[in-house]
Amino acid sequence: MVECYRREPLDLRCGTGSMLSLMGTFLGSPQGIVSARGLRMSARESFLAAVSLVRGAARAMPRFFKAMLWALPALVLRCSSYRFVMVYGRRIGPLAMQVDYFLKKRALGGYGGYAGIRPIILEKHRRVSNPPLLRIWSRHVSVITKGLAYELMNPLRIFPFLCIDMTAASRGLVGKACEYQEIANQWGDRPPIFMLPQELLAEGHRTLRAMGVPEGAWFVPVHSRDGRSYWPSEAETTAYRDSDISSYSLAVDAIIARGGWCIRMGEKGTKPLVGRPGVVNYPDTLYKSDWMDLYLCNQARFFLGNTSGLKLVSTISGVPCALANIAPYECIYGFLPSDISIPKLLHLDDGRMPRFAEIFESDLANRSRFEKPPMLSDNTPEQIRDLAIEMLDVLEGKAQRTAEDEARQDSFRRLLVPRHYSYGARSRIGTSFLREYADLL
Question: Is 164 found in the same domain as 255?
Fold first, then answer.
């Protein structure tokens, strides 16, 4: 007899326990939940056995037979308002943007027919890049990550009429503008949907004090995408988006000189900023956590970074982003009107720097071209410093922009057409950057 928690076991002398064990093993059950020798199981063991059996059956069953088995439940569910919202939860950027896109699209007067939808997100807990982020989203959508409910509902996602695919909303399609940009434009100045719960805000405030940031001080998360932010198999096709955090040092100095603090973001083991007063190298502290990542991006004065998905937590929070080292060029703009960005510099095989129009009129600007990227050079520390200073000036109402500066902004924006990812964006390119490279316009 196998007993758990001293509860009265469920009598299964009819052999059901053995049958579940053998079937679970045959169908690919990941672990021996039910003992073939034990003819009596506790209620808890019976539940786990059922979960194991359903999981094994789902894995072993060919798609055609799975569709036949689940066709009737799928038709019943189609008559309801429940739908599965398909998101990519393994990366924090898509998880932030795709759910935000759905919620804003639904809130904008039922745009796209989503007004009456009762959404469900199915995502394996162990595959979620930031579980606290998904828990916050669960205040707006039903989230199922494990258990019998997950195993029973997961096969229903093979039916397209039950699914609303949000994965293209952030990723976009090659040769098409990003759908999230359109929703961001329509949302305008409305308050963000994504808001941290009060208990997390209070705990984040206490943690910030423990990290050494004084009471009342403002701060800027600083992040530079590096090799620790993606899987090794992606290195060949995505490493061109990386940059060295040391090139942000002059910008960090400028922020500190204006009274701010800089929080180095990233994964454990990432290269730190040079230690000095006003800098916290957060990744290797005991305060590093998924929920604190959210707090820092949500409560920042602005986010200083590059192409990493982490910046999108600030975007859905309504926090402006100053973004350096952007590549490819078609992704140059941030999503919020308050964002400012500057691209990496592109060099042709002969060493020449092409004009911006030449880049956007060819495939040099496209993501597909960057599977084998051309030669790129990172922004200089001075360029990133000027970017940070411009953002600070804007936030403090001190920005000095001339008519010539605005003309350069308009000239650059007109280079983008509907096939470019950032088409329709209302943010800006760094003023100093366009002054420096006015001859490329």
Answer: no
